[in-house]
Specification:
- With 628 residues, the protein is α/β, with parallel strands linked by helices.
- It folds into 3 domains: 190 residues, Sandwich (Jelly Rolls); 77 residues, Sandwich (Immunoglobulin-like); 305 residues, Alpha-Beta Barrel (TIM Barrel), CATH 3.20.20.
- The chain is 18% helix and 30% strand.
- The protein is built from 8 helices and 35 strands.
- The strands form 9 sheets. It has an 8-stranded parallel β-barrel, surrounded by 5 helices.
- Helix 3 runs parallel beside helix 4.
- The chain is globular and about 85 Å long.
- It binds alpha-D-glucopyranuronic acid.
- Alpha-D-glucopyranuronic acid binds next to loops.
- Belongs to the glycosyl hydrolase 2 family.
């Protein structure tokens, strides 16, 4: 706690925020997560995925009584007691819940899939399961949740061990002093409700998917352990490692980072706060990571009796004028956007490695892509590790989306906490090239201040990657030609500019005029078309009329937009909207949408639409001939 506080203090000293001890934020300042637990999946422990019982609580009766005080004993669903046994002993006892005999569900996975009536449920759901443990002396135990949407309370054996706000980043709570020998009972209270101060606010263009969407694990580590390890190649040719130990023996401890295949060992010692900064010149034999050669090295981080394994790709990123450079060479990002939603007619945001592989393979092999925009929030670690393995460059983003409460200090603190949790979880992923701080946020003084703060946080936590944001553009007619440009002051603070442009779908420009639109930029910076596209219901053909939502119309929007894109010399990449149709409560046309956003190039079951072939052909051409 002392060290992490000092880390928070250091972080907050530079940011001017009030150092806080909790993993969450307080008004006026973000906090680094209390624990990072790099590569937690590799740690010893117990996977608590599987069968849990669940109980809905739309009026949050389990949190507080109707009079506003503490929940009555007969309502405390976080309590591990055996209600059946108690009421056998005392038939007059009144309990209006019984977690042990509640309906069962499989976690992880959003509650939309637990039962038909849960499809549109929003609110609080309690989950419980039992598990056996055998705590060992000198070992520390944690509960780690990969993600739960949107607010979560974690109870172990009836004791609140932590809370978290945010639906897409992991949280880790220490339970060393609460874990029992033999049977333990864990309860999660997950509340999907968001308000105007949330990140994101209630209105988005995607399904909320409330509940526990990524794995829950009991993690055990030595008393002093490697909590945060970041190993990377930097532009000066050095391989650097920042290692932070957690525990009573964190200070003045020898640390070794090994890359056996390179015969490389970085050695050093932690300072009094438990942090070590190591560096060594990259060996000549180093094979740099790229989409064509996604080379990953086994890395070990050793301190005392703790050894943490990782798999890391080494590469550099930079911008030079309006080019993005990967390992010093210009690269054009042939991409597509993607939500975290598996293929199938009733997805529940269960992104297993196989589910992610099915989607990323459509990008890499189907579309001849080398890039994926993981919209609009941090995706699962399984997806990121797969992008490392398969060779896809990643745009990672936090859900600072549309109408954020820019003036609200608590909202800023939550957003900063999400940035920190996102970057600290994923800094070892070679595939991530871009950190995005916002999507389509209307320009205002308050919004600029808010986003400048996030950009500052990103640069402090990771100066090795590029910062971007999906901006809005402005267009005007000049001598009969529509000229579009980026008129967003935030562009000055970004490394890579990005624009969502929907000519031909939104706005009144006739489809056949889209290819004539010209782009102007006063910035000598790379531009990514981070979104463009159109909706189409797979199988709806309308070759004569070409109404919107026909496959023909969508394919022509792609043809016209790609023709326009060829005329933008400072364009460095594209991630059209979107790989797959995805659930969105805002999209309710009874024939074409039925609660799905149909801008996918493939349907929810993976059926390719005509536009898929249009983009694939363009990316194949670019891959073989370059853009010019
Ligand atoms: C916006 C937004 C997406 C949305 C898309 C659409 O650009 O960024 O989240 O789904 O447009 O309208 O389909």
């Amino acid at each position: 706690m002392k060290r992490r506080l000092s880390m928070i203090a250091a972080f907050c000293l530079t940011l001017g925020c009030a150092p806080v001890a909790s993993a969450q934020s307080e008004a006026g300042g973000a906090a680094l997560p209390r624990f990072v637990m790099t590569n937690a999946e590799a740690r010893d422990g117990t996977d608590l995925s599987g069968t849990w019982t669940y109980s809905i609580d739309p009026y949050r009766d389990g949190m507080a009584g109707f009079h506003g005080g503490e929940a009555g004993e007969g309502h405390r669903r976080y309590d591990p007691r055996d209600v059946d046994e108690i009421t056998r002993q005392d038939p007059t006892a009144l309990y209006e819940y019984d977690m042990r005999r509640s309906p069962e569900a499989t976690l992880p996975g959003s509650w939309t899939k637990h039962a038909p009536e849960m499809r549109h449920y929003q609110g609080l759901v309690w989950y419980q399961r039992a598990f056996d443990a055998a705590p060992k002396r000198g070992e520390r135990a944690f509960i780690r949740v990969g993600a739960a949407n949107y607010r979560t309370q974690v109870y172990l054996n009836g004791q609140l061990v932590g809370e978290h706000e945010g639906g897409f980043t992991p949280f880790t709570m220490e339970v060393t002093d609460v874990l029992k020998e033999g049977e333990n009972r864990i309860v999660l209270g997950v509340d999907s409700a968001r308000d105007e101060a949330s990140v994101p606010p209630p209105v988005t263009d995607w399904e909320t998917y409330g509940g526990v969407t990524r794995a829950i694990r009991l993690v055990t580590v030595p008393e002093t352990f490697v909590d945060d390890a970041w190993v990377r190649l930097e532009r000066d040719g050095q391989i650097r490692a920042t290692v932070e130990l957690e525990g009573p023996g964190a200070g003045g401890k020898a640390v070794e980072v090994g890359v056996p295949e390179l015969g490389l060992t970085l050695s050093g010692e932690t300072d009094e706060t438990g942090i070590a900064h190591l560096a060594a010149p990259a060996p000549d034999a180093l094979e740099r990571w790229s989409p064509e050669t996604p080379k990953l090295y086994e890395v070990s981080v050793a301190a005392g009796d703790d050894v943490l394994p990782e798999r890391i790709g080494f590469r550099t990123l930079s911008v030079e004028g309006d080019r993005i450079l990967l390992n010093g060479e210009p690269i054009f990002l042939r991409g597509i956007s993607m939500h975290e939603e598996e293929l199938g007619e009733n997805p529940a945001r269960i992104m297993t490695e196989d589910a992610a592989r099915a989607l990323l393979t459509e990008i890499k092999e189907g579309l001849h892509g080398n890039f994926v925009r993981l919209a609009h929030y941090p995706h699962s670690e399984a997806t990121l590790r797969l992008a490392d393995e398969m060779g896809l460059i990643v745009w990672s983003e936090v859900p600072v989306y549309w109408r954020i409460d820019w003036e609200n200090e608590a909202t800023l603190a939550v957003a900063r906490g999400m940035v920190a949790e996102n970057l600290l979880r994923d800094r070892n992923r070679a595939s991530i090239a871009l950190w995005s701080v916002a999507n389509e946020t209307p320009v205002s003084e308050a919004r600029n201040r808010f986003l400048e703060t996030l950009i500052g946080d990103v640069r402090r936590l990771d100066p090795t990657r590029l910062v971007t944001a999906a901006l809005l553009s402005e267009s005007q007619e000049e001598d009969g030609t529509v000229v579009s440009e980026i008129a967003d002051p935030l562009a000055a603070s970004l490394d890579v500019l990005a624009i969502n442009t929907y000519n031909g779908w939104y706005g009144g420009l006739p489809l056949e005029e889209v290819s004539e639109v010209r782009w102007r930029s006063v910035w000598d910076k790379p531009l990514i078309f981070s979104e463009f596209g159109a909706g189409a219901l797979a199988g709806f053909h309308d070759p004569k009329l070409e109404r919107k939502f026909s496959e023909e119309y969508q394919a022509d929007v792609y043809r016209e937009t790609l023709e326009m894109a060829r005329e933008v010399p400072f364009l460095a990449g594209m991630s059209p909207w979107i790989l797959k149709d995805f659930r969105s409560p805002r999209r309710q046309h009874p024939l074409y949408q039925q609660g799905w956003n149909r801008k996918g190039l493939i349907s929810e079951t993976g059926e390719r639409k005509e536009a898929f072939g249009v983009l694939a052909a363009e990316y194949q051409r670019i891959a073989e001939e370059g853009r010019e």
